[in-house]
Amino acid sequence: MFLQHCEKVTPLKHDPETGFLVKFPTPAKRDIIKIVLQTLLDPDGPEDILSSNFAIRWVLECFGQAFTLPLAEHELIRSTIELYRKWINQEQLTQTFKENHYNYLQSLFGHMSLLFQIRKENNKKDLEIQKDLCLKIIEIVSQFAKNYGSEIGEEIWNFLLNLYLGVVDHFLGQKQIENDEIFGKMLAPHLLKLLFELWLSSKTKDISMWNRLLFLFTSWKKYQETVLQWTATTYGLSNCVIQMLYGPSEGTDDITILLPPTDEVKFEPSTFILDNETLVFFFYKTLHLIGNPNTLRNPRIFFLAMNGIRDLVTLFTRIGSNIPQIKKTTTTKKSRKNYPDHPNGNTILNLFGQWLFESVELNREGFEEGTECAYSTLSEIFMLPQKTRFKKIYTTSFYESIITAFENEEKYGRSIAAILFYTSNIFTSELDGVYILIPFYLHWISEILIKQHLPKNCAIRPELLRRSCLSILNTLICLPKYFTELEFEKEFTSSSILKNFRYKTFNGMQQLIINLIIQGFVSEEDPTNACKFFWTFSIYLFEMKDTKLTFAPKLYNCLIEVISDHEEIKKQKWPIWVIECALSVLKSCSVLTEILMKKNPNIIPNMVKQLLSRIHQMILDPNNVPMDIHNESIVCKIFEVIGDHIILGKWALENNALMDQLIELIELSISDPQFVKKKKNKQITGQTKKIKNSALQLFSRILCQAGTLPIETKINNISSLVNEKELMDYFNISQLELKKRLRYLSLNNNKLILLFEEPNNDGNSNDNDNKEMEDLLSVENRDEKKTLLLIRDSNGKYCWRLRFRSLPIGFIKREVNKENLHYWEGDPRPPIYKAFTPFSETEENEENIKFNRDQINFDFFTNNEQLQYDCLNHSMGFEHRLEEVYRFTEEETKTIEIKVTPPKNKFACNDHQNLESQKKEKEGMELEIEKEEGGERGTGKGKKEPEHSNKSYFNSARFFLTAMGLIKLENEENVEYLDENTNLIENLKQFDQSYSRNTHTFSVIYMKKGQNRVKNIDNIYKNQTSSKDFQKFVTELGWLINLEKHKGFKGRLDHNKSGKFVPYFADKSNEIIYHVSTMLKFEQNNIEQKKLLLSQNYITIAWIEDSRRWNPKTIRSNHNSVFIIIRPHYSGLYKIEIENFSKTTNVEGPLENNSFLSRHILAELVRLTAVSLDNSGFFLENNNNNPKSIRKQKLNQLVNQFKLNLNVKDFYSKTFSNVWEK
After folding, report:
1. pTM, whole model, 2 decimals?
2. Bridge partner residues of 790 (DSSP)
3. Which part of the chain is the Rap-GAP domain (predicted)?
4. How many CB atoms sit inside 10 A of residue 150's CB?
5. For the residues of 291-331, what is the DSSP string, one character each?
6. Distance (Å) of CA 403 to CA 195, 244, 264
7. Which residues does 916 contact at the CB level (< 8 Å), separation at least 6?
8. Exposure class string for 98-115: b at 16+ Cβ within 10 A, else e
9. How does pLDDT run across 1125-1169, given as a tens digit for each residue?
């Protein structure tokens, strides 16, 4: 006995010798079943009731009728089901039953199928009861198939498959009354799931069974449960086939079938394992069960079928994207198999292309949702990341389908939105002839971005569709300059879009692109899209930087308007993070400051003025509302942006009005609460600590960088590289003498000053290792006293070489008529304009020289140059220079007062001889003094010098301190000495490692074609050669430095281990070292050392000479968080992909994923993006502490640790003597 419908659709036939109790009255059948059931379940009952086959058949005949009883007897039915479960699982069986168990299985399963008969008199409650009982039977059959499937024969499997083919068709294959349909929907997903589980467990290859399934399946396709089950089964089979074809890193080991959950139940996954031959057979047969989905007449079912096909296509297109990190494992035969990398796009289209192209061509009315799905699936296939040389018929059909849709909005409106959304990177693909579509895309981008006209029946959210349009526009930015006068193909002469497209060449698109960017932003309301527009601004600026940039003011105005729009938190148009993004864009564009100033001198000053006004508004709050953390962040960011622009060039320093406004604003920003001021009826309250620090940092940058570095200097030497150890080695002085000649002072606790009075020797000038130091310290006159001034602060370390120079007053340039200026060719000193201006009406004394204007014969004077020189010297009262007197003073010889008398003659042409005799007289007096003390001049054999002499090695340096006013009493609290001991010097050595600029190390790896495959990963690090294109890119990232001689930031490299030369870049804010995989020269090309070094960097730049997909996880370590991937495009352009694995770092531009760049801006934008990402990650991990703040903090710690806290007496003793001890 079994369900009667099964006999209609399957070969199953009823046994005429069974079913003799069918005609019994229901009460009689119920009583018989109860009595037999109680007897069998009674533990004290007889044990040999089922000892014969006749008894077993008779009992089964009785229990079979239990499944036909009314549902009011559901408890009796449930007890019978439980007894059948035990017998099926071979529990409580007699010996005879065990021996013939498989012979009775057909009866057991057939009897239970009777419960699936639809009861027409059922009410809602009975339907629920019957459903629960049926689900119990489904569970029993499913468990049996899993546990005993491999033990039963083909006969039983065919019986089960035919039985449940009939059961499923009973619900889905015939027209049902209302209750039947309800009941069928309740059980359909469970029965379909059971049927496909039985099919997979049976592993049947019986063609007749598959043909019967295909025949019945055709009538089941009208239900969505059928299509969902087909999708789930085909998906599981495809996953397993993919692993078989493409290796263990793809797909799954087993077939996993998981149905989507319903409102009532969440299905558990089912897993199966098939051999490869059976797997492929099942995949092919199951895939084609659905037939041609375009024949489906229900729009909802059609959409589900197309959506299932899209899921299958996605499985194939994502092959190669889910590669796990490589672990060292024992190589097996399976792992050595040479698997293909990915499926060819033509292969996927061979499987699904006919259905998809037919769907978009038919575009049946009412079936728009399914047609949209077909378009999105085709787009996914053609947008494959790996290069596929598609068959011409496929490419042509795809282009025609897109053009057809774009031309007919009324019919294809929903599909137009799908095309724009799913083909955002179509112009970075390597499709043949893809640029023919540019006019059609630009038409709809213009409609959406400028006119805000969405396609009819658009099912994609407007902000997402606009975002996709902007992504497409980003890929077109570089084309006008690259293809210039290349004309567009116009093969589609009947196209209305092409007729209205007035641009004949690529170069003509420039104005259209800038209009789309600016006008599109004006109409934008989505914050995320606004940020995307901002970065589009920056990319376009860089791309067009060598043009006139007439559009630049409009772009800057858009950014400034966003920043200025933030009047109050409650009334703002854009959220805070959008304003911060606008400021980030301005910051990234600061490198173009000098270019922009040449093209438009007003654009940057106007921008800075507007930013200053914005800060002014936020600080001068009319309501005296305390500044919140969001406004505080904006103010600090604006200060940073202003600083980045001001330090580039001299334009700001030459703009007095701008500088006045800036300094005034800085003063307001650092105002303390106790100095509350009023200005225009607005309160200026004390600012937050963060704002004060930002304002002071800006002021420091202006003074230190823009103020002291307009001089020409290498940017990597922006901070002095001299240190104490090199000074000691160069001058070859002992530790004791160093202590005498050296002083450390702290100025206002924020500057640490080293004063070092150099000895007269030339140092180790013959030592080749000190050649650079020799060049640095070389002077014209080595007899002059020189003081080395080394200043450390938060901005860096600066070294000054001080030489005291003083010229006679007559040699000072004066404002006189040109005819009074004369150049003395015989003067050995540096050329100086000299003017002779006679004195008049001076007081008469012995120290002044009296001239009378009337007594001077100017004609005679003008014609006698030697006479002019002598008179100028004599007019000052002495011939020798002041520095000579200073030298005598330093040698601490006893001075003799020299009185100069007025000349006897008018011009006293021989007075220099008189002065020379006075010098000799002075030397004679000194000689007499030495003889009186018992010594001989020049022999050193005089009276012994006292043990505590007042002789000092610090005279020249002390003179500088005095001239600067640093040793005055009023500066007592601001200037403090530090203890010059070894610990301080060692601490300073460590402190010098705290760089004043942001430091970055970026990994740069090169992959040849084919090296992006898993098995070739080690070959990446073995590369010693690379393409010329990559080499040029590396040279544009920075410049080569010699690590052995470079004393700045080295990025953890040692020239003895990693190689001598390395790419380096520096500007006034950053220092960058690039760890280039092809340039690292470890001993014996040590791959592990190279891997370790490259894996420790936060940012990795990967140059891949292969269009196939590469997963960065293959080489990623815990430190590698962001990968910037560069792929050379066949057109000569470059495609950029960004993989971000960081949970905290946002991709902040200028570049974004799927950017498309030309050669001349590639390296610059990659560098800016890497720096932006690295700064973002560093600041988030270090609580926004920038290098200057860290350096300032360490400097304060050093000062507090080593300052001497001297009283006045000790302070001056240390200043004037070298024997002071603490």
Report:
1. 0.76
2. 754, 799
3. 988-1198
4. 9
5. --GGG---HHHHHHHHHHHHHHHHHHHTTTS-PPPP-----
6. 44, 39, 44
7. 879
8. eeeeeebbbbbbbbbbbb
9. 999 998 889 999 998 887 665 666 789 888 999 999 999 999 999
